[in-house]
Amino acid sequence: MLKAVLLDLDGTLADTDPLHLLAWREVLRPYGLKVDPAFYRERISGRLNPEIVRDLLGLEGESAERLIEAKEARFRALAQGLRPTLGLTELLEKIKERGLLWGVVTNAPKANARHVLEALGLRPPLLVLAEEVGRGKPDPLPYRVALERLGVAPEEALAFEDSPSGVQSAVGAGVPTYGLLTGHGAEALLKAGARGVFRDFREALALL
Question: Whole-model pTM above 0.85?
Answer without folding.
Answer: yes
